[in-house]
Amino acid sequence: MTVPDSVSIVGGGIGGLSAACHLADAGADVTLFEQHDDLGGVAGSFKSDGFRFDSGPSWYLMPEVFERFFESFGTSVDAAYELERLDPSYRVFWKDGDRLDVPADPDALAPKLEAYEDGAADAFHEYLDHAEAVYELAMDRFVYPRRARLRDWLDGDLLRAAWALPLLRSMDRHVGGYVEHPKLRQLLEYKLVFLGGSPYNTPALYTLMSHVDFNQGVFHPVGGMQVLVDALVDLADRLGVTLERNTPVSRIQPNGDGMRVRTNGDTQASDCVVANASPAHVERTLLPPDQRDHDDANWDGQTYGPSAYLLYLGVEGDVDPLRHHSLVLPVDWDAHFETIFDEPGWPTDPAYYIHVPSKTDRSYAPDGHHSVFILVPIAPGLNDGPARRAWMRERVLEDLAEYAVDLRGRITVEHEACVSDFANHFGQPKGNALGLAHTLWQTGPLRPAHRADTAPGLYYTGADTQPGVGLPMCLISGKQTAQAIAADTPA
User: Fold this and answer.
1) What is the pLDDT of residues 49-108, one digit of tens each?
2) Using a CB cutoff of 8 Å and minimum separation of 24, what contacts does 61-65 make?
């Protein structure tokens, strides 16, 4: 593909690194500006007193997307890092004392579901068959191909497929057509939290996540998510990308036929700019007012994914019965989702996720200890002052002690993050942790486009743009942004 001579990239998250690699590989002179010392955005890790923690994403899903990315540069995942498939994929704790291991083989899971509902095994297989068909259709027709405009999505074959129409209803209604037991519905729906949505506001199109979860499986990159970031950085470096760390950008200014980026008092000129940041943040803080596509009211009216209360704990002793990945769920989780999307507030009976990578990878913790990461989804925009954080900490540790394991009294290292950290450190609107939620009106062509309209030469990539949230989607987003730039570049 034909690309401009020079491209500046603002932000070194997964989408920015992906775009940098594709553009440099096509011949552009690429300079990437990252405001922090570490690349990877919310992905990556940090160390503290002998412990290591994945700072953000910790689920390695959709392995074929990563393989496809590296193969496009003549290498492979195997050459970059080692993957280990988890079995069981994760363990679910319900707050009535019930627990369920989800094996890597869905055929081994199906019989377990009969204990909850007669006919659930057959319904599960039928549901997964449908989820696989949706996944293949979505990836082949709409995710990998760059369909930037609404009319690009008016695919005749899809519109003639009557089975696809129910995908516009909510995920909860769709799942309810297969199983009725609330625990089974939770099992099939929880992954939507990682897309920044709930079962009640996310379209059933994302049933594809069940294929990702149960059929493709859950993996652990040995060494943690940092090995993925390191592999992307190494690839960018080999392709000739100039990586400017600790270089915050204070202004993006269209200038005639090119763009200018202001960094630390200096101005860098390039043919175009790729912003690997929320368009809301870019428009509000980096662009001149007359170059914005939207006003503040537009961004205030968007539905953002959850923020999170995060605990990073170095724990002495055993943490059984926790697994590498564990979920702790109320039997009725409606109240928690209401505090995220309907009536924002702090959950009193939270659903939460626990990551203990040291169960699989002993490099995460000293002997006799474990690295424990706890994530509680909460509403964006909440006031997370010290008193409220302390309340949430005690609530979660007390809850965990009652339903799984008591960590209190054994914590030797502790860090936390919450709403204000996502807002201040990453410029996330309202301090959200995931980007725009995948509601029906923020899916596909209805998400922010890769091209800016009013500021020619400005492009976007990452979770807030197409195709959406998650590490695999950000990798694809970077390629699609490069394709958009190539389409606008005269041969």
Assistant:
1) 999 999 999 999 999 999 999 999 999 999 999 999 999 999 999 999 999 999 999 999
2) 61/212, 61/213, 61/216, 61/218, 61/219, 61/470, 61/472, 62/212, 62/216, 62/470, 62/472, 63/216, 63/217, 63/219, 64/216, 65/472, 65/475, 65/476
C-alpha distance from residue 258 to each of 4, 102, 330 (Å): 10, 53, 54
Strands 352-355, 266-270: pairing kind: unpaired
Q: What does residue 366 show for φ and ψ, rounded to 5 degrees?
A: -65, 165
Residue 154 pLDDT > 90: no
Give the type of residue at 401: A
Confirm if 149 and 466 have CB atoms less than 8 A apart.
no
pLDDT tens digits along 265-284 = 899 999 999 999 999 999 99
Task: Tell me the DSSP string of 25-87.
Answer: HTT-EEEEE-SSSS-BTT--EEEETTEEEE-S---B--HHHHHHHHHTTT--HHHH--EEE-S
Cβ(483)–Cβ(467) below 8 Å: no
CB 200 within 8 A of CB 172: yes
Q: Tokens 């899903």, residue?
A: 61
Question: In this structure, what token pair is assigned to residue 317?
Answer: 């002793």
pLDDT in tens, 200-244: 888 888 888 999 999 999 999 999 999 999 999 999 999 999 999
Q: Which is more confidently placed, 321 or 156?
A: 321
Say what the pLDDT of residue 162 is: 46
Q: Give yes or no for a contact between 261 and 254, defined as CB atoms under 8 angstroms apart.
A: no
Residue 405: CA atoms inside 13 Å, Cβ hemisphere, count? 19
Backbone angles phi and psi of 490, in degrees to 5: -60, 140
